[in-house]
Amino acid sequence: MAIVGHFENLDEAQKLVQSKLLAGVVQQIYEEGQLLHELPVMVIDSKSVKYNREYTNPTAAFYNIHEQIPWTADQNFTTQKEAELKRIARQSILDRFIMDTYKDPNEYRTIVLSSLTKGCLSFLEDKFVYGDVDNDAAEFDGIGHLFDTDAAGSEAFGSSQWYDMGGSAAPVSIAIMRQLIDMCKPKPSILLMSRTLRNVISAAAFEKGIASTIPVGSITYGKNEFGARIDYFDGIRILVSDYMLNETDNTTDKDSGNDSGVCSCYAIRFGQIMDGGLCLCVGGNTGGSEFFKIKELEALEDYDAAGIRLTAYCCLALGSSKALAGIHSIDENGTVVA
User: Fold this and answer.
1) Taking the CB of the first residue and of the last residue of the chain, which one, N or C, has fewer CB atoms within 10 A?
2) Structure pTM?
3) Spatial contact of 84 and 315, defined as CB atoms under 8 Å apart
């Protein structure tokens, strides 16, 4: 037993000691790869926005001297597209008993608001990747479900914007990565992938590239304004996203246990709808430095409490189907092949 002088034991001595509580909360959750900072914003003043995509170009022909030139009508469009705003919201109680009686370094309302904002942004970033209207009509489609057809099995680049890498025994191929870039017209802004897949590709070009067939020049890197490393594949910036998780094979849906070892990779071109790119549509008071509209509720019925609510009206819109291409069913930890 520890000798603590006057007191019978250490527990008794500690009854006279009060620890100092530091103000605030130490960050423990770090999530990188936010698309909100990358996406161009389009403000709309209606519930949705509709737009047409090209389908065919007018044709021409050769004619001899004095030959009659016919009038031709052959222009049409694809099925009209619509991007519909969806509401994201979260509200929490601010208990007045706590606010009025707790006298400690923490400002109760500030802590709640900070936590709410971070949680809502994290939820939104997840939906940018994995949102699915077919699964929940109240949400918008994320990147994985903005394609004209959802991922299935045995797809290859051609008329499709998808490539099926093959599953748990199919590592990513450098040749297919180059085809991925070619399928995003005219040129992708970023390649979006998981941290694990980025590390595997990077290792193939550097540590493992010395003894492999992967050309070192495929992967290069630079630094941003803060000195952090930025990776490039064939000159296209790689955006590492912690929101990209393991997926069920032949889908772009999250694996329930996040342990399938299968992932996707996307080539994305950002831009306004009429520029044919991927953008974020917002409405109402959504946007700005706060992004979420913050509503203070002074008194809640039947509660000795106030309330705070965060709301946003937004959705993703893909102008041209050619602004997005993807590879699904990649063995995330597989050895990169040429």
Assistant:
1) N
2) 0.88
3) yes
